[in-house]
Each structure stands twice: as C-alpha cells, then as structure tokens.
Amino acid sequence: MKSVPFEAVARSVEETREVGRELSLLLVPGALVRLTGPLGAGKTELVRGLAEGLGVPPDEVASPTFALVHE
After folding, report:
1. How far from the centroid of its chain's Cα atoms is residue 9's Cα?
2. Count of CB atoms situated within 10 Å of the CB of 22
3. How far apart are CA 36 and CA 51, in angstroms?
4. Residue 68 pLDDT
5. d(C-alpha 24, C-alpha 9), whole Å
6. 7-48 tens-digit pLDDT
7. I want to staple 46 with a disulfide (CB 3.0 to 4.6 A). Which of 9, 17, 20, 26 is the partner?
8. What CA–CA distance (Å, rounded) separates 21 from 19?
9. d(Cα 20, Cα 14) in Å, to the nearest integer?
10. DSSP alpha helices (H): ranges in the chain?
11. What is the residue extent of each domain of the chain?
12. Taking the CB of residue 56, how many other CB atoms lie within 10 A of it?
C-alpha cells in the first residue's frame, strides 16, 4: 500500500472539520488513515469532518478516549 503524507493547519473546530472534509475527497475505498496527536489535538473533530465528507452524519462519531475515561 502506498503511503501519502497529508499535513494541514487548522485554528478552529470548523477549520479542523473542513480539513477532514477535504481529506475525504482524497481517499479511495479501502484506504487506511492513521491519526496521531495528544489529547485535545482535534483528532475526533477531524474524523467528524471526514465522516461528513463521506456522507456519514458527524454526530455518529464519538471520541474513544472520552468513552474510555467515562466508563
């Protein structure tokens, strides 16, 4: 599988979601996406934008860290 680096800078939740929507336009079926970053970096918001770009309601995306911390 070919690796394609993707970098973006977002300064707000809406900008982060827009980056996710833009990323969704680059993905092909079966693509894998690896996100890394500290707690609160915006990974979940990015995935919400990605989901929205793929036609999935963004409220269907939950933060796995939030779920683990509150169990």
Report:
1. 13
2. 14
3. 17
4. 55
5. 16
6. 889 999 999 999 999 999 999 889 888 888 898 899 999 999
7. 20
8. 5
9. 10
10. 13-24, 43-53, 64-69
11. 13-69
12. 14
CA-nearest of 14, 59, 6 to 35 is 6
Residue with tokens 């939950």: 62
Token pair for residue 23?
A: 């990323």
Supply 62's token pair.
């939950």
What's the confidence (pLDDT) of residue 1?
A: 66
Q: Are 42 and 16 in contact (CB under 8 A)?
A: yes
Length of the chain: 71
Residue type, 29: P
Structure-block tokens of residue 20: 């996710």
Q: Which residues, in sequence order, are CB contacts of 36 under 8 Å at separation 6+?
A: none
Q: Which two tokens stand for residue 60?
A: 């269907």
